[in-house]
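Dissemination and training. As part of the outreach component of the grant, students in the summer workshop were shown how a complex can be specified as a set of sequence lines and then modelled as a single object. The example used during the hands-on session is reproduced here so that future cohorts can follow it. Participants entered these lines:
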Amino acid sequence: MKLQVADLNSFYGPAHILFDIALEVGEGEVVALLGRNGAGKSTTFRSIVGLVESRSGRIVFEGKDVSREPTHAIVRGGLGYVPEERRIFTDLTVEENLEVGRQPKRPNAPHWTREKLFTLFPNLGEMRNRPGGRMSGGEQQMLTIARTLMGNPSLVLLDEPSEGLSPKIVEQMVDAILAMKKEGVSIVVSEQNLHFARLISDRAYIIERGKICFGGTMAELDARPDIRDAHLSL
Amino acid sequence: MVPTLLSVEALSKSYGGVHAVRSVSFELRAGEILALIGPNGAGKSTCFDMLNGQNMPDSGRIHLLGEDTVGRKPRAIWRLGVGRTFQITATFPTMTVRENVQVALVSYGRQLFNLWGSTAAYARDEAGRLLDLVGMGAYAERPCGELAYGDLKRLELAIALANQPRLLLMDEPTAGMAPRERIDLMRLTASIAREQAIGVLFTEHDMDVVFEHADRILVLNRGSLIAEGSPEEVRGNPQVRAIYLGEGLVYDARHREGAGA
Amino acid sequence: MAFYFVQFLTGLASAASLFLVASGLSIIFGVTRIVNFAHGAFYMLGAYVAFTLTERFSGALGFWGGIVVAALIVAIIGVLVEMVLLRRIYHAPELFQLLATFGLTLMVQDIVVMIWGPDDLLGRRAPGFKGAVDFFGQNIPSYDLFLIALSPIVLGILWLLFQRTRWGVLVRAATQDRDMVAALGVNQKWLFTSVFALGVFLAALGGALQIPRDAVHHALDLRIIVEVFVVVVIGGLGSIIGAFVAAVLVSELNAFGILIFPKISIILVFLVMAVVLIVRPWGLFGKPEAAARRTPGLTVTPWRPLTSGERLMSLGALVLAAMMPLFAGNYALTVGSEIAIFVIFAASLHFLMSVGGLASFGHAAYFGLGAYGVAFLAKAAGLPMIASLLLGPVLGLLGAAVFGFFAVQLSGVYFAMLTLAFAQIVWSIAFQWVEVTGGDNGILGVWPERWAASPANFYWLSLGITALVVTVLRVMVFSPFGFALRATRDSPLRSEAIGINGKRVQWTAFVISGTVAGIGGALFAYLKGSVFPDSVGISLSVDALVMVLLGGVETVSGAVIGAIVFKAANIWLVSQTDLSKLVLGGFIVLMVVAFPKGIVGTLETIRNRRRSAEAKKSALVTSRIEAAE
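and obtained this result:
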C-alpha cells in the first residue's frame, strides 16, 4: 500500500470540514477523488500534506505515519502535491520554478530531469525563460505539475488538474497523467469532471460534504448510476 | 407589478487579458430569490464583488434600487439598503452577539461619531428583535468568538438585516456548514425574504440548497452567462449538464480536432 | 557648480551604508515578514567590532580583513538571535515582533557601552584611501569615491546571488509564497536563518565601512534605523532595487536639504516620503501587501463596563491615592505626579493601540508637542498656567491631525514605521531649530504658578486630571464611536459592509489619542519646569508601548496598571543600576515571548478560566447528545 488515510478530521477555525475520511492508494495506482465544488477534495489533499493546521487522524505513507511531520518533510519523503490554485511563482522563470521543486534522486521513484519534463510538456521547453506570470492558465497548470515532478515523488496528489482549461489542453493533461503513471508514479487526482476521471483512473472515491460516500473501481461506479446522479450530477 | 431591485447590463471585467466576467446581464425583483452558480473560476465572485462595490467593472451598468452604483464604495451601497454576508463569516469576534448587531444599528442610526453615549443602551431591543428573528435570541450575551460556525452564519444574517435592506447579497451562505444547518439557514433566509419582500442574490456550491430554495438560477461559465431560468429549466439544460458532469467534453474535442485536420 | 557636484558625490557616498542596511532589512522582511528593529543595533555592532579588529591588526590586510571579519562575527550573532528568539515569534502579531527586536536594540546599547565605553571612538583611515581628490578646487575624500563605487558592486553581487544560485531562487520563491515553497519540500527554518544571516551581514558591513568616515558611538543604531525605515517606506519593503534607489534619493535630499533649509534639513526627506505614500502607499518598487495581521487576537472575551462594585473600588483607590500628601514626602509626591502623567500618556496610546488596533511607534511626538506647546505659551506668549495647560495640548492635536491623516492610510508594520518616522521629524525640528526650541538646551523655566507650585498641590492637580482623562477615555471605549473603532479593528471587511468609514474613524481616534498625549506632555512640562527634545524621543515612545503591553494590550484599562508598575520600576531601576537599558530590553523580550497578555490580561484569563470551567462541562454534554443523534 502506497498511502493509507484513516479517521481524518479537519477544521478551519470553528468549521468542521472533513469527517472521518478514509482512503487507500496502491502501488502505481491512479485513484480519483470525485466530488462537487466545496465537497472537501482540496481540504483532503491539504490535510494529507500537513497544510491544514487543525486536523486529526492517521496518514501512513510508504509504511510510515507522517501525520505529525511538517509539510516539507512529508514532501521530501516523496509525497508530491499540486495545488488547485497552481501557485506558480509568477516572478520566477519556468526554469527557476522547476529549480524550486528539485529534490535529490530517490531509489523507489522515477527520476525526472528538466529535459525529460520538457519532452513530456513540450510547451514548457519553448518558454524556459518566461516568467510564470506571463503564461496562460494551461501552461501554468503544466508547469505546476512539472515543478512537483522535479521532486521525484513516488506519489502525487493532483488537485483538479482539468479545471478551467480548454478541451485541447485537457487532452494534453490526460496524456501527461498517463505518462506519469507509466513511469510508475502513484497518483490521486481530484475532479469534478467524471468523464476526465474515467479516462485516467483505476478506482474512485466520491466525497460529499466532507464525507467519503463511495469507494470502488470505475466499473463499479459506472454500474451505479444512482450514486453518480445523487452525488455528482445536478 | 413587482419592482425591479437590481438590474445589471453588459457587466464585464478582465484581469491581464483574462475575461473574468463578460457581458453579464440580469434583473432581480423584490421578494425573488436568485442563485448564481457555476464551476470554480466561472466569475461568480468577481460578479459579486462588482455588485458590492469592492471591484470596479471595466464596462457595463449596475442599477441598484434605481441608482447607478458603479464606482461607489461598499459602505455607500450599504446605505442604499443592501445587506451582505460573506463566504467566510465576517463578524466582530471581540464583542458579544448583541453588540455585533448593535454596531450595525449604530451605523444605520448615523451615531458612529457619538463619543459620549452608551452603546449598551442603544437600540438594545431592536438588536434583540433581529436576533430573535434568526433564532439567536438566547445567545445575545455570548461572546461572538465562542459561537459555532452555523451560529456565526445566523448572526451574520441578523447583522445584514440591521439596515432594513431591500436586497441581500449572500456569498456562499452555507459554505462550511453541516448539512442540516444548511437547510435550516436557507429556509430561514427564504422565509424572511418572502415576508419582507427582500430580494436575495446568492452564490452557492451545494446544489441541493440551490434547487430547493432558488426561484430562478443564473449559470456562469468562464465569465459568461450560459443559462438562466427556473430550477427545472436549468437542470434540464444540456450545456449546464456538460459543465457539471463533463460528458462528451474531451471526446467532442478530439472529434472536432480530427474533423479539422 | 563644482560645489554642487561635490555635494552630490557626498550624498552618493552616504548612500552606500544606508543601502547596505536597508537592503538587509528588506531581504529579511521579504522572506520572514519580520521588520527587524534590531537592524540598527547590528549596524552599530558591526562598527564597534570593526573598530576593535582594525585597531588590533595592522596593515591593509588587517584593515580590510577586519571589516569583513567584523561583519561575519556580527552575522553569527544574528544567527544565534534568530534561532533563540525570532523562531519563537514568527507567528506572533507584528507589534510583538517589533517590540522584541526593539528590546534587543536596548540591550545592545548597554552592552556596547559596557565593552567599549561611553565615549566616541575614532577609527583608522582606510589604507590606500587616506587622501582627497581635487575637483575644481573642491576636495573629495578618496574613501568617499570608494564607497560610491561600492554600492553598485554590492547591488550587482546581490543580483547575481538572487538570480544565479539555487539559494537565491528559493529566497525569491519564498518571498512570493513561502507556504508553496514548503509544499515543494524546502525546509523554511534554515532558509529563514540563512536569510537573516545575510541581512545582518549587510547591516554590519554597512556599519564597519563607516568607521573611516564617522565616529563610532552608542547612538548610531537609532539614527540609522530611522533613516532606513524612511528608505524602505519610500523604496518599498522587500525590494532591493527599491532600497538602492531610495537610499540614493534620501542621501541626496539630505545633502541638498542642508543647503535649502539649513536648520531643518530633514523636512525635505519627509515631504518626499509623504508624497510617495500618497501616490504609492507600498513604495516606489514595492508591491501592495495583503492585509496585515491584526494586533489583538489573543483573547476574545468581550469588554464590559465596570460593575458598581468595581467602580467603588476604583474610587477607593483614587481616594487612597489622593491621601498620599498626608504621609509622603516631597520626593515621593514628585514621583507620584510623574507616574500620574505617564498614566495619561499610556492611556492615550492604549486608546489608539488596543481599541483602534493601531500600534504607534512614535507616540511621544504628541506628548512632546503638548509639552512644547505649553512652553511656547507660558514662556513666549506669557499666558497664565490654566490657559497654557488648556491650549498647549492643541499643538498635540494639530500634529496628530496632520500625521494621523497619512498614518491611517497604512496599517501594520508600515503604520509603525511611519509613526516612528513622523516622531523623528518632530524630534529633529525640536533638536535643530535652535532659535525657536532652544535645541539641545531646551526651554527652561516653565514653572507652575504659585497655587500649583507645592509638590502636594501639583500632585493633586496631576491626579485629578489623570482621573478625569482615564474616565473620559473609558466612556469613549463604550460609546458608539468606541464600538465603531473596535469594529474597524476587528473586521475591516464587515465594518465597511455596515457603512463604517474606517479611515475616518481611525483618524478621529488618532486625533483624540494625540490630544490626550498632549495633555500629559503639558503637565510634564510644568512638572519638570523645562522641555527638552528627549520628550519627543524614540525611547519615550517605546516606554509607552511597554506600559500598554505590560498592563495588557487587550484590556480596557490595563494601561493604567501598566504605567504605574512600569514607571515606578523604571525610576527605581535607574537609581539602582547603570544598566537600566539592558534590564529593560531583556524584560521586553521576555515579556513578548513568555507573557504577551500583560498583567491585567493574565489576571482576566485566570478568572475567565475558572468561570468557564463550569459552563464548559454542560456544553460538552449538549454537544455529545447532538453528535449521538
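The longest strand of chain C covers residues 132-135. Students were then asked to discuss how this feature might be tested experimentally.
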